[in-house]
Amino acid sequence: MATWASCGEVQTNWRRLIWTATALIAGLWYPPPARAGFCTAHRTDRENRHDLQFFAGYSPLSPTLIGTETSRRFVLAGLSYGYRCWTWDSVSISYTAAVMPASILIQPAQHLAGVAAHSVYGFAMAPLGFTFDFGWKHRFHPYVESIDGIIASTEPIPENQPDATGLNFVLEFGAGVRWNVDTRSAVTIGYKFLHISNAGTTRFNPGVDNGVICLGYSFLR
User: Fold this and answer.
1) What is the C-alpha radius of gyration for the chain, rounded to an integer number of angstroms?
2) pTM of the model
3) What is the DSSP letter of 77?
4) Which of 15, 119, 182, 204 has its CA 20 to 30 A from that of 40?
5) Is the distance from CB of 88 to CB of 75 less than 8 angstroms?
6) What are phi and psi of 23, to 5 degrees?
């Protein structure tokens, strides 16, 4: 049975993430006119279009809605960028991308295999997502979000088994409440459902789900 991902696999995974991070950052800071044909919202003096959020969260358990692994906890911390693209009186839609440099899966002990409980460090990139803010002009309002990406980890997850992989896909659905503290800052508290798997790219693909309680702080512009 494999115990750790090979050095070559880990290095390849991190190189892929570095190139993806570079492309994402370049896209986020590309001049706004390049997005004009995609987004139809028109900024007014009272509306912010840009949302830079720092967030962190913890999942104490792993349900089996999609994945089959259990007893795995998850810790994450990162930042996201949102750009409000479409607005109506009651709802707005923002393009959202996120980087999670701390994506840690806490593995349970496997007594039969002689493996102690331990944490597996990962780095996640999620460049494709959308956030729906309902009643977005109100100081308190609900939101829902969905975002997709990839995660590279220091060993294969959710299990370190033959034909498992340290490069997986991440699917997230979330919801919560947003409080616009003032015109330049906001606080969110919400729930993120995370699914991690290799999408069947290898024969071993149990997948793992986590329900993450998150807190975020946004800088608005």
Assistant:
1) 19
2) 0.81
3) E
4) 182
5) no
6) -65, -40
* Number of residues that this document lists for the chain: 221
Q: Whole-angstrom Cα distance, residue 40 to residue 154?
A: 42
Residue 211 burial (CB count, 10 A): 17
**Nearest-angstrom CA–CA distance, 221 and 217:** 13
What are the pLDDT digits (tens) for 170-187? 999 999 999 999 999 999
Q: How far apart are CA 172 and CA 125, in angstroms?
A: 12
* Token reading at 41: 């919202």
Burial class (CB in 10 A: 0-12, 13-18, 19+), 112: exposed
The CATH class of the 7-220 domain is: mainly beta
Q: Name the phi and psi angles at 217, rounded to 5.
A: -130, 130
The C-alpha atoms of residue 205 and residue 6 are separated, in whole angstroms, by: 19
